[in-house]
Amino acid sequence: MHGDLKIITGTANPELASAICNHLGCHLTPTLCETFSDGEIRIEIGDNVRGDDVFIVQPTCAPVNDNLIQLSLMLDALKRASVGRVTAVVPYYGYARQDRKVSPRAPISARLMADLLEAAGMHRLVTVDLHAGQIQGFFNCPVDNLYAAPVILDYLRQTVTNDIVIVSPDAGGVERARAYAKRLGASLAIIDKRRDKPNQAEAMNVIGEVKGKTAIVVDDMIDTAGTMVAAGNVLLTKGAKEVMACTTHPVLSGPAIERLCESSFSQVVVTDTIPLGSKLQACSKLKVLSVAGLLAKAIHNIHTESSVSVLFV
Questions:
Q1: CATH architecture entry for 149-289
Q2: Quick check: 61 pLDDT over 90?
Protein backbone atom coordinates (compact mmCIF):
# COMPACT_ATOMS: atom_id res chain seq x y z
CA MET A 1 0.00 0.00 0.00
CA HIS A 2 1.10 3.54 -0.68
CA GLY A 3 1.20 6.30 1.95
CA ASP A 4 -1.68 8.23 3.48
CA LEU A 5 -4.77 8.93 1.38
CA LYS A 6 -5.15 12.60 0.47
CA ILE A 7 -7.70 14.36 -1.74
CA ILE A 8 -7.02 17.71 -3.41
CA THR A 9 -9.00 19.72 -5.92
CA GLY A 10 -8.74 22.73 -8.17
CA THR A 11 -11.55 25.14 -8.98
CA ALA A 12 -13.33 22.93 -11.54
CA ASN A 13 -15.71 21.10 -9.19
CA PRO A 14 -14.85 21.59 -5.50
CA GLU A 15 -18.39 20.58 -4.44
CA LEU A 16 -17.90 17.10 -5.91
CA ALA A 17 -14.49 16.80 -4.23
CA SER A 18 -16.03 17.72 -0.87
CA ALA A 19 -18.82 15.18 -1.36
CA ILE A 20 -16.23 12.47 -2.13
CA CYS A 21 -14.38 13.37 1.08
CA ASN A 22 -17.63 13.06 3.05
CA HIS A 23 -18.07 9.53 1.72
CA LEU A 24 -14.46 8.64 2.59
CA GLY A 25 -14.48 10.32 6.00
CA CYS A 26 -11.51 12.53 5.23
CA HIS A 27 -10.78 16.21 4.63
CA LEU A 28 -9.63 18.05 1.53
CA THR A 29 -5.94 18.87 1.54
CA PRO A 30 -5.69 22.68 1.28
CA THR A 31 -4.55 23.81 -2.16
CA LEU A 32 -4.00 27.34 -3.41
CA CYS A 33 -5.36 27.97 -6.92
CA GLU A 34 -5.31 31.55 -8.05
CA THR A 35 -4.85 33.52 -11.26
CA PHE A 36 -2.39 36.36 -11.73
CA SER A 37 -3.50 39.56 -13.46
CA ASP A 38 -1.88 38.42 -16.72
CA GLY A 39 -3.88 35.17 -16.73
CA GLU A 40 -1.15 32.84 -15.48
CA ILE A 41 -2.24 30.26 -12.89
CA ARG A 42 -0.51 29.82 -9.54
CA ILE A 43 -0.75 26.48 -7.69
CA GLU A 44 0.57 25.62 -4.24
CA ILE A 45 -0.16 22.45 -2.22
CA GLY A 46 -0.78 23.46 1.39
CA ASP A 47 0.31 20.27 3.19
CA ASN A 48 3.11 17.73 3.22
CA VAL A 49 2.49 14.96 0.65
CA ARG A 50 5.83 13.14 0.70
CA GLY A 51 5.20 9.46 0.03
CA ASP A 52 1.42 9.90 0.13
CA ASP A 53 -1.28 8.46 -2.14
CA VAL A 54 -2.89 11.60 -3.59
CA PHE A 55 -6.05 11.89 -5.69
CA ILE A 56 -6.75 15.09 -7.63
CA VAL A 57 -10.45 15.67 -8.35
CA GLN A 58 -10.55 17.93 -11.39
CA PRO A 59 -12.91 17.51 -14.37
CA THR A 60 -11.63 19.28 -17.47
CA CYS A 61 -14.94 20.99 -18.22
CA ALA A 62 -15.44 24.63 -19.19
CA PRO A 63 -13.25 26.62 -19.00
CA VAL A 64 -11.53 23.55 -20.40
CA ASN A 65 -8.05 24.93 -20.94
CA ASP A 66 -7.85 26.65 -17.54
CA ASN A 67 -8.95 23.48 -15.74
CA LEU A 68 -6.55 21.35 -17.77
CA ILE A 69 -3.61 23.61 -16.94
CA GLN A 70 -4.62 23.67 -13.28
CA LEU A 71 -4.61 19.87 -13.26
CA SER A 72 -1.22 19.74 -14.98
CA LEU A 73 0.30 22.22 -12.55
CA MET A 74 -1.05 20.30 -9.55
CA LEU A 75 0.46 17.11 -10.95
CA ASP A 76 3.82 18.81 -11.40
CA ALA A 77 3.68 20.33 -7.91
CA LEU A 78 2.99 16.93 -6.37
CA LYS A 79 5.74 15.27 -8.39
CA ARG A 80 8.26 17.87 -7.18
CA ALA A 81 7.00 17.40 -3.59
CA SER A 82 7.98 13.68 -3.72
CA VAL A 83 4.46 12.30 -3.74
CA GLY A 84 4.22 8.52 -3.50
CA ARG A 85 1.54 8.14 -6.17
CA VAL A 86 -0.90 10.55 -7.77
CA THR A 87 -4.18 9.63 -9.44
CA ALA A 88 -6.08 12.15 -11.53
CA VAL A 89 -9.82 11.81 -10.95
CA VAL A 90 -11.25 13.47 -14.07
CA PRO A 91 -15.02 12.76 -14.06
CA TYR A 92 -15.41 14.61 -17.36
CA TYR A 93 -12.48 14.22 -19.76
CA GLY A 94 -12.33 17.26 -22.04
CA TYR A 95 -11.28 16.94 -25.69
CA ALA A 96 -12.67 13.37 -25.71
CA ARG A 97 -14.69 14.11 -28.87
CA GLN A 98 -11.46 14.86 -30.74
CA ASP A 99 -10.23 11.26 -30.66
CA ARG A 100 -9.32 10.83 -34.35
CA LYS A 101 -8.08 12.76 -37.37
CA VAL A 102 -11.09 14.21 -39.16
CA SER A 103 -9.03 16.04 -41.78
CA PRO A 104 -5.47 15.64 -43.17
CA ARG A 105 -3.80 18.26 -40.97
CA ALA A 106 -5.80 17.98 -37.73
CA PRO A 107 -4.47 16.91 -34.31
CA ILE A 108 -5.72 13.98 -32.26
CA SER A 109 -6.40 16.21 -29.28
CA ALA A 110 -7.57 13.51 -26.87
CA ARG A 111 -4.21 11.74 -27.31
CA LEU A 112 -2.25 14.94 -26.80
CA MET A 113 -4.10 15.59 -23.52
CA ALA A 114 -3.17 12.07 -22.38
CA ASP A 115 0.51 12.71 -23.18
CA LEU A 116 0.38 16.04 -21.36
CA LEU A 117 -1.07 14.59 -18.15
CA GLU A 118 1.38 11.69 -18.07
CA ALA A 119 4.32 14.03 -18.70
CA ALA A 120 3.10 16.21 -15.81
CA GLY A 121 3.35 13.26 -13.42
CA MET A 122 0.05 11.35 -13.45
CA HIS A 123 0.36 7.69 -12.40
CA ARG A 124 -3.27 6.67 -12.94
CA LEU A 125 -6.52 8.10 -14.35
CA VAL A 126 -10.07 7.65 -13.05
CA THR A 127 -12.82 8.99 -15.29
CA VAL A 128 -16.54 8.52 -15.91
CA ASP A 129 -18.20 7.54 -19.19
CA LEU A 130 -15.48 8.41 -21.69
CA HIS A 131 -17.04 9.60 -24.94
CA ALA A 132 -15.05 6.92 -26.75
CA GLY A 133 -13.89 3.95 -24.69
CA GLN A 134 -10.83 3.41 -26.89
CA ILE A 135 -9.33 6.64 -25.50
CA GLN A 136 -8.11 4.42 -22.65
CA GLY A 137 -5.53 3.14 -25.14
CA PHE A 138 -4.03 6.62 -25.46
CA PHE A 139 -2.55 6.26 -21.96
CA ASN A 140 0.48 4.25 -20.86
CA CYS A 141 -0.77 4.19 -17.26
CA PRO A 142 -3.80 2.40 -15.73
CA VAL A 143 -7.17 3.94 -16.64
CA ASP A 144 -10.41 3.22 -14.79
CA ASN A 145 -13.38 4.26 -16.93
CA LEU A 146 -16.33 4.12 -14.53
CA TYR A 147 -19.97 4.10 -15.59
CA ALA A 148 -22.64 6.39 -14.17
CA ALA A 149 -25.37 3.98 -15.33
CA PRO A 150 -25.88 2.36 -11.88
CA VAL A 151 -26.57 5.78 -10.33
CA ILE A 152 -29.03 6.75 -13.07
CA LEU A 153 -30.67 3.31 -13.15
CA ASP A 154 -31.34 3.39 -9.39
CA TYR A 155 -33.14 6.70 -9.82
CA LEU A 156 -35.19 5.46 -12.78
CA ARG A 157 -36.26 2.31 -10.92
CA GLN A 158 -37.56 4.46 -8.05
CA THR A 159 -39.36 7.08 -10.12
CA VAL A 160 -40.53 5.56 -13.42
CA THR A 161 -43.13 2.82 -13.10
CA ASN A 162 -44.83 3.05 -16.50
CA ASP A 163 -44.06 0.93 -19.55
CA ILE A 164 -40.56 2.08 -20.53
CA VAL A 165 -38.68 2.18 -23.81
CA ILE A 166 -35.01 3.19 -23.82
CA VAL A 167 -34.05 5.28 -26.85
CA SER A 168 -30.67 5.88 -28.44
CA PRO A 169 -30.57 9.31 -30.15
CA ASP A 170 -28.24 7.96 -32.86
CA ALA A 171 -26.66 4.74 -34.10
CA GLY A 172 -23.45 5.34 -32.14
CA GLY A 173 -25.21 5.16 -28.79
CA VAL A 174 -27.02 1.85 -29.33
CA GLU A 175 -24.70 -0.17 -27.09
CA ARG A 176 -25.27 2.24 -24.20
CA ALA A 177 -29.04 2.25 -24.71
CA ARG A 178 -29.12 -1.55 -24.94
CA ALA A 179 -27.29 -1.83 -21.60
CA TYR A 180 -29.88 0.45 -19.94
CA ALA A 181 -32.77 -1.47 -21.52
CA LYS A 182 -31.37 -4.80 -20.34
CA ARG A 183 -30.96 -3.61 -16.76
CA LEU A 184 -34.49 -2.16 -16.66
CA GLY A 185 -36.15 -4.99 -18.54
CA ALA A 186 -37.34 -2.43 -21.08
CA SER A 187 -37.63 -2.40 -24.85
CA LEU A 188 -35.18 -0.56 -27.12
CA ALA A 189 -35.67 2.04 -29.84
CA ILE A 190 -33.22 3.89 -32.08
CA ILE A 191 -33.53 7.23 -33.82
CA ASP A 192 -32.19 7.13 -37.36
CA LYS A 193 -31.10 10.50 -38.72
CA ARG A 194 -30.41 10.95 -42.39
CA ARG A 195 -30.29 13.53 -45.19
CA ASP A 196 -31.61 12.32 -48.53
CA LYS A 197 -29.97 15.22 -50.34
CA PRO A 198 -27.29 17.80 -49.51
CA ASN A 199 -28.52 20.93 -47.69
CA GLN A 200 -31.78 19.21 -46.80
CA ALA A 201 -33.06 19.10 -43.24
CA GLU A 202 -32.39 15.86 -41.39
CA ALA A 203 -35.19 13.33 -41.41
CA MET A 204 -35.57 11.51 -38.07
CA ASN A 205 -37.12 8.06 -38.11
CA VAL A 206 -37.81 5.92 -35.05
CA ILE A 207 -36.85 2.25 -35.23
CA GLY A 208 -38.84 0.42 -32.55
CA GLU A 209 -42.19 0.76 -30.82
CA VAL A 210 -42.68 3.81 -28.58
CA LYS A 211 -46.46 4.37 -28.77
CA GLY A 212 -48.09 4.69 -25.34
CA LYS A 213 -44.76 4.26 -23.52
CA THR A 214 -42.47 6.45 -21.42
CA ALA A 215 -39.54 7.06 -23.75
CA ILE A 216 -36.19 7.69 -22.04
CA VAL A 217 -33.46 9.06 -24.33
CA VAL A 218 -29.99 8.17 -23.02
CA ASP A 219 -26.63 9.62 -24.09
CA ASP A 220 -23.23 10.24 -22.55
CA MET A 221 -23.52 14.04 -22.71
CA ILE A 222 -25.78 16.95 -23.59
CA ASP A 223 -23.86 19.80 -25.21
CA THR A 224 -26.03 22.28 -27.14
CA ALA A 225 -29.05 19.94 -26.70
CA GLY A 226 -30.11 20.21 -30.37
CA THR A 227 -30.02 16.48 -31.09
CA MET A 228 -31.57 15.55 -27.74
CA VAL A 229 -34.48 17.99 -28.05
CA ALA A 230 -35.18 16.94 -31.63
CA ALA A 231 -35.23 13.32 -30.48
CA GLY A 232 -37.79 14.13 -27.80
CA ASN A 233 -40.02 15.90 -30.27
CA VAL A 234 -40.02 13.07 -32.81
CA LEU A 235 -40.80 10.53 -30.08
CA LEU A 236 -43.91 12.46 -29.11
CA THR A 237 -45.07 12.56 -32.71
CA LYS A 238 -44.69 8.77 -32.79
CA GLY A 239 -47.08 8.39 -29.87
CA ALA A 240 -44.83 8.28 -26.79
CA LYS A 241 -46.84 9.07 -23.65
CA GLU A 242 -43.96 10.88 -21.96
CA VAL A 243 -40.34 11.66 -22.85
CA MET A 244 -37.36 11.95 -20.49
CA ALA A 245 -33.65 12.48 -21.08
CA CYS A 246 -30.78 10.89 -19.15
CA THR A 247 -27.14 11.78 -19.59
CA THR A 248 -23.93 11.63 -17.58
CA HIS A 249 -22.23 14.89 -18.53
CA PRO A 250 -24.28 18.14 -18.60
CA VAL A 251 -21.97 20.22 -20.81
CA LEU A 252 -24.93 22.52 -21.63
CA SER A 253 -23.17 25.07 -23.81
CA GLY A 254 -24.67 27.79 -26.01
CA PRO A 255 -28.47 27.63 -26.24
CA ALA A 256 -28.77 24.33 -24.34
CA ILE A 257 -30.60 25.62 -21.26
CA GLU A 258 -33.15 27.57 -23.31
CA ARG A 259 -33.75 24.57 -25.55
CA LEU A 260 -34.24 22.20 -22.63
CA CYS A 261 -36.64 24.58 -20.87
CA GLU A 262 -38.78 24.77 -24.00
CA SER A 263 -38.43 21.07 -24.85
CA SER A 264 -41.00 18.30 -24.57
CA PHE A 265 -39.01 16.52 -21.86
CA SER A 266 -40.75 16.11 -18.53
CA GLN A 267 -37.36 15.72 -16.84
CA VAL A 268 -33.68 15.85 -17.79
CA VAL A 269 -31.58 13.63 -15.52
CA VAL A 270 -27.85 14.43 -15.32
CA THR A 271 -24.97 13.83 -12.88
CA ASP A 272 -22.58 16.19 -11.10
CA THR A 273 -19.47 15.30 -13.12
CA ILE A 274 -19.75 18.91 -14.33
CA PRO A 275 -20.98 21.65 -11.93
CA LEU A 276 -24.12 23.41 -13.16
CA GLY A 277 -24.10 26.50 -10.95
CA SER A 278 -26.75 29.00 -12.00
CA LYS A 279 -27.86 26.75 -14.88
CA LEU A 280 -29.62 24.51 -12.37
CA GLN A 281 -31.90 27.35 -11.26
CA ALA A 282 -32.47 28.42 -14.86
CA CYS A 283 -34.11 25.11 -15.86
CA SER A 284 -36.57 23.41 -13.51
CA LYS A 285 -36.49 20.21 -15.60
CA LEU A 286 -32.93 19.37 -14.55
CA LYS A 287 -32.47 16.65 -11.94
CA VAL A 288 -28.87 16.20 -10.72
CA LEU A 289 -27.66 12.86 -9.34
CA SER A 290 -24.30 12.59 -7.61
CA VAL A 291 -21.48 10.26 -8.65
CA ALA A 292 -19.54 11.11 -5.46
CA GLY A 293 -20.31 7.73 -3.90
CA LEU A 294 -19.18 5.88 -7.02
CA LEU A 295 -15.92 7.84 -7.21
CA ALA A 296 -15.32 7.45 -3.47
CA LYS A 297 -15.60 3.65 -3.79
CA ALA A 298 -13.13 3.69 -6.69
CA ILE A 299 -10.69 5.86 -4.74
CA HIS A 300 -10.96 3.62 -1.68
CA ASN A 301 -10.38 0.47 -3.71
CA ILE A 302 -7.42 1.95 -5.57
CA HIS A 303 -5.88 3.18 -2.32
CA THR A 304 -6.30 -0.22 -0.61
CA GLU A 305 -5.16 -2.10 -3.72
CA SER A 306 -8.59 -3.76 -4.00
CA SER A 307 -10.44 -4.57 -7.19
CA VAL A 308 -12.01 -1.68 -9.07
CA SER A 309 -13.75 -4.02 -11.50
CA VAL A 310 -16.38 -4.81 -8.83
CA LEU A 311 -17.83 -1.37 -9.59
CA PHE A 312 -18.64 -2.45 -13.14
CA VAL A 313 -21.00 -5.25 -12.08
A1: 3-Layer(aba) Sandwich (3.40)
A2: yes
